[in-house]
Design brief:
homodimer, 422 residues, alpha/beta, Rossmann fold, Dihydrodipicolinate Reductase, domain 2, Alpha-Beta Plaits, seven-stranded mixed sheet, 38% helix
Chain lengths: 422, 422
C-alpha cells in the first residue's frame, strides 16, 4: 500500500454542513486514508462570529478574513457560505489562485455553473459540486462516470425534500399550512419557505442535472415551474381514492435535440417508483439507452449527507481521479411540452349547477371526464368545490376549455390543474 | 475542449454482453468522445466460431486465438468469456503484459478478486469490474467514490434478478415450477438455474460488495446461503395476507469489527423499500454513517446494462481517472448472526392434531405464535400444511423447538423457515 498523501482543506463557512464536514473528516480520517490514500486536514476555517460555540471544531483554525483561507497554503477551497455573493467571488478567487474548489451552492451553480466550470478548466483546476444536487446521493457522479456510455433520454425526480415532506404529511390528512408549520418545526423548511414550496429550488437542481445529462447550457427561464401552494388535503384525498399520490416532480426530457424541463405537482399512480418516496427523501429516476430505468434514492439534504458529497469531491480531486467536467459551451434548445394525458382539475364554484357549463365547455372539445367520487360531494358542501379527472387530452385543449368556463362566470376562486401521469 | 485520445480495446468473448458493448460503443462513440475526451475502437475480438452471424460486428476483427487479442497493440483487455478458466488465465496474461483489464465475471471475482487486484496493482495497471455486480447499477463506484467518506454499516440487496422474477410471478399465483419455466422462456433464467435459485450468484455478489464496503477479504464459505426452492404459492399468499412480500435478500452487516453475511428468502413488510422491487430488477440498500439509507435500483442483468458498466470502466481507465482499488489484504472476521425476530414456519403434517405437539414445543420455550389465517385452512385440507408466524424469538430457540417437533414424529415432509423483517 502506497503512503498517504497530505491534503489541506481551506473551509469557507462553518454552518451545519461545514460542521458536518469537520465532524466527518475527524471521524473517518483513517478510513479515508486507507481507501483513497489521502490524509485530510483543515488549514483555516472562515466564520462570521469567532465566539459562537462549535464543538469538535479547533478554535485556532477560525478566522473572519476570507483571504486567510483562500490565499494560504491549502490545496483545495471548500465554499459553504451559500448565496450568490460573496460565494461567487470566493470561488473565483480560489480558482484564480489555481486552487481546486468544491461547493454545495446550488443557487450559484444554477446561475454561474458553466462560467465557473470554464474558469476552473482554464486554470487547470477542478470544481466539484456533487453536494449541490440531492446532497449525498451520488447523482452528479452517476451522470459523469457510471452512465458515461449512455445517451440519457429523461430525468424525473423528487428533488425538493421540503415539498415532499409537506405532501407526505398531507396524505396523513394535514392541511397545507399545518404541514408546512410541521416541516418548519422539524427543520425541513426555512422560515421563508418560498424557494422550496414555489418550486425554484427543484428547478435549479433540474437545470444542473440536465446540463450534465444533455451536455449544454440551459437558459434558466426555460424551466416551467409550479409549486405546491394551493394544494389541499381534499386534493390529496381525491387523488388517493383513485390510486394516485400527489408528488412535486421535476422532469427533463430530450425529444429530437430539444429539451423540455418542468417542475410541478403531478398525480402519480401509487405503483410508480417515485410515488413511494416519503418524507424529506429525494429520488432521481434516469432513463437511458443502455441501462433502461435506474433509480437513486436517499436523503437529499442535511448536514452529514451534504458533507458526505463534499468529502467525495475532495477525495476524488485529492487523488487526482476526478473526471474532467466536459460540458460543451453551447446552448441547448428548449421548448415547453404540450402535455397530452389525463388531468386533475378542481374548480371553486357558487352553486352545484356550475357543473353544467363546465361539462359543456369540456364536451364541446371532446374532453370526457369523471367526477372525483364521494369525496367531491362532502367537499362540495363545505367548500363549494368540484374535482374532476379528465380523460386524455392535449393541455392546450384543456386550457381553452378552462378559459371558456372562467368566462361563463360560474367560478368563485382559483382553479387547480395537475397532470396525471400514467 | 482538448483533443480526443485514441484508445484501443481488445475484446475476449462476443456473446450477448460482448455484442452489446460493440453496439453501444458504435452508437455512442461521439457522445463518449465529447463527455470524456476518449475515442474508443476495437482491435481484435476473440470468438469461438468465426462463422456465427453477428450483425454490427466487423468480421475482420474476429479471431479464435486469444493471444492475438492480448498480445496486440490494444490499451485495454475486456474479458467477457465467463467461467473460471480460461478467463482467469486471460486476465493474468493481460495484466502480465501491463494491459489494463475489465471483466464482468462475478464468479471469477468472487474466487480470485483480491489476487487479481493485487496482480494489477503490482503491474501498475487497473482492473475494472463494475459489471460483475448488478450490471449497469453503479454500485461498485458508489462504494469507491460517492460514499468514500462514509463508514458503511450494512448492505441489503435484491441481487439476483432470476429469483426476483420468479417470486414476482408467484405473487400473481404461479407455483414455483411454472414461474421458473416462464423465467427460462423469457431469458431471465438459465437452462440449469441452480446457481441463481440456490442463492450462490447472490452470495458471490454480496461477497464482492462486502469486501469493498468493509475493506478486507472474506472467506467464501462464511456466507450463509439459502435459495428459493421449496417456497410455494401458498407461502407467498400467506405472507401477502399479513402484509408481507417474500423476497430473496442478501444482507451484510458490520458489528464491532465482525461481518455477518447471509442470503435467504425473507418476509419483508410491503412498505419496505426492497419489497416493491419487481420482476428481474435489482436493488441495493446501503446504510452508512453520513448519508443514512441510500437505495440504488435498476436492471441487474442484460446485454446493454452490463455493457454500460463495462464501458464506464473502460472510459474511466482510458481517461486515467479511475480511483485505485485500495482493499487491504487482510481477512475480515465473520460470524453467523443468531437472528432474533419473527419467523414464518410451514410444517407438513399427517393430521390437523399435529398442531398440539407443535404448539407445546414452542410454548415450552416461551415462543408464542399466530396461525396464518384463512389460507392455512384450505391449504391444510389439500396439502396437509400448517403455517405459523412466531413472535420475536432467537433463531437458536426456534431451531431447538423445531428439533423437538421433528422428533415427536408428527411431521411428514420438509419444514420451511423464513425470517420476517420488521
Amino acid at each position: 500500500m502506497n503512503e498517504a498523501r497530505q491534503y489541506k482543506i481551506g473551509l469557507l463557512g462553518c454552518g451545519n454542513v461545514g460542521r458536518g464536514l469537520v465532524e466527518l473528516v475527524n471521524r473517518n480520517r483513517s478510513l479515508i486514508r486507507e481507501r483513497a490514500g489521502v490524509d485530510l486536514s483543515f488549514t483555516k476555517i472562515l466564520v462570521r462570529n469567532l465566539d459562537r460555540e462549535r464543538p469538535a471544531v479547533d478554535r485556532s483554525l477560525l478566522t473572519i478574513q476570507p483571504e486567510k483561507v483562500i490565499n494560504n497554503e491549502c490545496d483545495i477551497v471548500v465554499e459553504l457560505v451559500g448565496g450568490l455573493e460573496p460565494a461567487r467571488t470566493f470561488i473565483q478567487e480560489a480558482l484564480a489562485h489555481r486552487k481546486h474548489a468544491v461547493t454545495a451552492n446550488k443557487a450559484l451553480l444554477a446561475t454561474d455553473g458553466s462560467s465557473l466550470l470554464q474558469a476552473a478548466a482554464s486554470q487547470g483546476v477542478q470544481l466539484g459540486f456533487e453536494a449541490g444536487v440531492c446532497a449525498g446521493i451520488p447523482i452528479v457522479r452517476a451522470l459523469q462516470n457510471g452512465l458515461v456510455g449512455n445517451s440519457i433520454q429523461s430525468i424525473a425526480g423528487i428533488l425538493n425534500g421540503t415539498c415532499n415532506y409537506i405532501l407526505t404529511r398531507m396524505i396523513d390528512g394535514f392541511e397545507f399550512g399545518d404541514a408546512l408549520r410541521e416541516a418548519q418545526d422539524q427543520g425541513f423548511a426555512e422560515a421563508d419557505p418560498s424557494l422550496d414550496i414555489d418550486g425554484h429550488d427543484a428547478a435549479q437542481k433540474l437545470k444542473i442535472l440536465s446540463e450534465l445529462a444533455f451536455r449544454g447550457n440551459i437558459y434558466p427561464g426555460s424551466v416551467q415551474v409550479r409549486g405546491i401552494r394551493g394544494i389541499t388535503a381534499g386534493d390529496v384525498a381525491a387523488a388517493h381514492q383513485l390510486g394516485y399520490a400527489i408528488k412535486h416532480v421535476a422532469i427533463a426530457e430530450m425529444h429530437e435535440q430539444t429539451v423540455s424541463l418542468r417542475v410541478h405537482p403531478t398525480l402519480l399512480p401509487q405503483t410508480h417508483q417515485l410515488a413511494s418516496v416519503r418524507d424529506e427523501n429525494n429520488a432521481v429516476l434516469i432513463k437511458a439507452d443502455a441501462v433502461g430505468e435506474m433509480l437513486f434514492y436517499g436523503k437529499g439534504a442535511g448536514a452529514l449527507p451534504s458533507a458526505s458529497a463534499v468529502l467525495a469531491d475532495i477525495v476524488e480531486i485529492a487523488s487526482q481521479k476526478r473526471p474532467e467536467m466536459r460540458v460543451p459551451d453551447r446552448a441547448l434548445a428548449t421548448e415547453p411540452l404540450d402535455h397530452t394525458g389525463q388531468s386533475y382539475v378542481r374548480f371553486t364554484v357558487e352553486r352545484a349547477t356550475a357543473i353544467g357549463p363546465i361539462a359543456a365547455a369540456l364536451q364541446e372539445r371532446g374532453v370526457t371526464f369523471a367526477r372525483a367520487a364521494n369525496w367531491a360531494k362532502s367537499q362540495f358542501k363545505e367548500k363549494r368545490q368540484i374535482s374532476i379527472f379528465t380523460h386524455s387530452c392535449a393541455s392546450s385543449t384543456l386550457q381553452s376549455a378552462l378559459r371558456q368556463i372562467s368566462a361563463s362566470g360560474v367560478l368563485r376562486g382559483t382553479t387547480v390543474v395537475m397532470p396525471v401521469a400514467s
